[in-house]
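so i finally got all the pieces together for this one. its two components total, 900 residues if u count the protein bits. some of the lines might not be protein, just check the labels. i wanna see the whole assembly predicted at once instead of chain by chain like last time, that was a mess tbh
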Amino acid sequence: MLSFDPDDSRYLRELSAFVAIPSVSRDAESATMRAAAGWLAGQLEFAGGLVMVPASGHPFVRADWLDAPGAPTVLVYGHYDVQPTGDEAEWITPPFHPTVDGDIIRGRGTSDDKGPVYLVLKTAQAFMAQEGALPLNVKFLFEGEEEIGSPNLAAFVADHAAELAADLVISADGAMWRPTEPSVSLASKGLVSLDIVVEGASTDLHSGRYGGTVANPIHALAVILASLHTPDGAVAVDGFYDGIPPLSAERRHEIAEIPFSAGNYLAELGLTLGHGEPGYTTLERLWERPTLDVNGVRSGGKYTVIPHVAIAHISCRLVPGQDPDHVIDVITAHVEAVAAPGVRVTVRADEARVPAYTIAADHPAIRAATAALEAVYPGQHVLNARVPGTLPATAMFERLLGVKTLFFSFSTADEKLHAPNEFFRIRRLREGMRAWEQLWRLLAGTKEAS
Amino acid sequence: MLSFDPDDSRYLRELSAFVAIPSVSRDAESATMRAAAGWLAGQLEFAGGLVMVPASGHPFVRADWLDAPGAPTVLVYGHYDVQPTGDEAEWITPPFHPTVDGDIIRGRGTSDDKGPVYLVLKTAQAFMAQEGALPLNVKFLFEGEEEIGSPNLAAFVADHAAELAADLVISADGAMWRPTEPSVSLASKGLVSLDIVVEGASTDLHSGRYGGTVANPIHALAVILASLHTPDGAVAVDGFYDGIPPLSAERRHEIAEIPFSAGNYLAELGLTLGHGEPGYTTLERLWERPTLDVNGVRSGGKYTVIPHVAIAHISCRLVPGQDPDHVIDVITAHVEAVAAPGVRVTVRADEARVPAYTIAADHPAIRAATAALEAVYPGQHVLNARVPGTLPATAMFERLLGVKTLFFSFSTADEKLHAPNEFFRIRRLREGMRAWEQLWRLLAGTKEAS
C-alpha cells in the first residue's frame, strides 16, 4: 500500500495553485488557459507531460507511462477548464482565491474538475516515488474545453487515435452522487443546447411613444418559454420523449430501494416543494428522465423601453434512446409553431450534440471500481448511481477508440458545481488517492501489498 | 420679431457641450449631475440662475425674471438628466460625443430633453439682448430626475410653492407627434412600474445534477409574463382597465380624420405587423389606451445552470380614469394568483406613481400654442395630439400650484428617445426659438412686432 503525506498541507497548497488559475474556458485569455495546461504538464513530468496546442481551441495536456509490458493500458481523462463564476458578489470568498474553510476548500473548479484531476496526479507520483513504476500502463489526456462542450476533443482524439489506444478510459470527471456513501456511475446524460432569439422593431423603442402598438419581444419570448413545459412540469414539446424505453419495474424497484429522502434533498436546496415530470420520483427524474431547462434569459432593463431583442439560452439533458439531432428538430418546430406574429423568432442550435452514455453494471471496470471503493470505504455499500450531468467525451471515446469509460471521480454532486461557492471536501483527496491506487492495482491484476 | 444667429454653428457648439455631460440620472456620479446643472445655471445668468442641491437626489436649477409687472407669469419646466445609453455598441457615434450628421445632431439627450431646453434659453437670451426684457414674467425650473420618475420634485415644489407660483406651467419636455406637421399635446399618460422577482433554490444549481427535480425560476417567470396579455395583445390582468371611460364616437372620428399610415409607421420601425389591444386602431392604442410592457428580464446565462433568481421589470402607461395604486394592486394580485408552486414570487412596486394628465382643447394656453405654431409653420394644420409618454410633473404641478401645464416641446417622437442613436432635428432649434418667442408674446398679450 502506498503511503501518502501525513497531513494535507502540501496537497492543499498545490491544489490551490492550480485552482488560482482562472481557466474559464468560455472567456479566459489563451495565456491563462496555457498556464493551467502548463501547470498540469509540470505535474506529469514523470510521464513526459506535454502541452499540445491545437489549431483552434484551448490546449490539450498529454503524457504516457507505458513501462508495464503485458499489463492493461488505461487512458485517464479529465479537464482543467472551469465554469464562469456567475455573480462574484455571491461568493463567500473570491472564486479564484481558493480558501480552506473547515473540512472543505472553496473555489471555482475545486470540485469540477481540478480537485479530482489533482488527486490522480498525486497517486501516480506516489507510485513512481515509492515503487518506481505504475502497476499498469497509463496514458493521460486532459482538455480545456469540457465546460463549453468539448468542441475540439473529437478531432484531437481522431487525429491521435493510435497513440491514445487503450483498454479502458477512466474519467476523473463525473461525481459521487452524495457524501454519505460511495457510488459508481453507470450512465451520464446527453446534452444539446440552443438559443431562442426574438426580434421586434429595428431599435429599442420608448415604451410610451410606441407602447401598445407593436409586439414586445419579451412578451413573445415569455409565451414561447411558458409553452415548453406543462404546468405540472413535463416537457410539452411534441416528440421530445421519442425513443426513450419505458422505465422497467425492476429499475423502479432498484431505485426505490436506495435510502433517499426527497425532503432532505429539497431542504438542502432551501426548498420545500419539488417540481418535475409527473409520474416519477425525484431520483427517477434525476437519473432516468430527460430535462429541458431555460438557463438564461436577457433583454432590456429597468427603464421604460420596449427592447428590440430578447434572448433565451436553453439546454436539454438527454437519456438513452433520445437522438440529439431529433431533439433539436422538435424543439425548433415547436418554437416556430408557437412564435407570435409581429416578431421574428430564430432558433440557433449549438454544434455540440452529445447523446447519453451507459456502461453495463457487470463490466469488469465497474466491478474493479466497486471493489476499490469497498476497500476505501469499508463496511459501506457501493451504490449504482447515474451522473445526471453530461460528460461529452464518453460517447466519443467509444466511437473513436472502441472502449468504455469508467467514471471515477471524487467530486460530490452537492459541491455547488457551476454555482457560486463551489467547494471540494478535503477528505476526498486522500480517499481518492487511495481509491485510484486500489483501482489501478485491481485493473492490473496485481495483488495489493496490504 | 427677434433675430437669431444667421447660421447654426454656435447653437450646435453650445448644445453639444451640454449633451457631452453624461447626466444619466439612474447611475451618474453626483459631480456629473452637478456639472449639467451648473451648465444650465450659467445659461440663466440673466435671471439669476442657481443650482439648488436638495437633501437627497440630483440638483434643481432655478431662475426668475420677473420685471414685467402686470403681465402673466409662466413657469418653464424641463430636465437636464438623460436615460441610460443601452448597449453602446449599437450607437453609430458615441452617445456622449454629440455628432452632427446631415440635418440632425445625434447623442443621448439631444432630443430628450437637452435640445428642447436649450432653445428656450436662447429665446430668452435673444429677448434680453435685443429688447432688454422678456414679454412676460418667467420662472425657470429644471430637474435632474425626470427619467427616474422625479422622486424629489414634488417635495421641492411643495417647499417652494410660493416662489414657484405662476399662471401656467410650460413644459419643454414632451414631443411633437411626428416631423411632418406641428402638433399640440392635450394629454400625457400616467406611469407605474414594478419588478417581479422569482426565487427558487438558495443557490444556482447545475442543470444536470438537479435538473428535472426542482422548479426553474425562469420557467415560472415566463408563465407569469405570458399570462399578462391575451394572445391578441390586450392586457389580461383583471381590473387593469377599471375606470377608463369608453372611447367616444366623436373622439374616434377625430382620430380617424388625422392623416396617418399605420403601414408607414410600422415600416419606419422595421416592422410589417402591428400588435396591440384588439378593437382599436394604432393611433387609438397609442393615444387613448393604457399599456403594460415588460421592459427587461434577466436571469442566468449561457451555461448549464438553473438560476436561483429571475427578475422582470414592468411598467404601465395609464390613461385618464385609471388609479395608479389600483393598477399596482390588480397586477400584484394577478401575479400572486398565477405564481407556480415551488418558487417564491415577490412583486416590488416602485414608489413613483403618476396618474394620466389632460388639458382642455379650448384652454387659453392651448389656443396660444396653436397660434404660435401656425405662425412658425404657415399653411400647416396644427394637430391635437397626445403624449403617449409620461410627464410625471404635470399632475403634481396641478395639485401643488393649481395650474395646468402646456407641453411645448420641439422634440419629435421618432427621434429614438430612450434608445440607441437618439437624435434631434437641427431645424427644430430655429423653429423652436421662433415658436417660444411667439408663444410668450401671445401669452403676454403683446402684439408681435413683425
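Chain A touches chain B through 90 residues (CB under 8 Å).
The domain at 9-188+356-444 of chain A is CATH 3.40.630.10 (Aminopeptidase).
anyway lmk what u think
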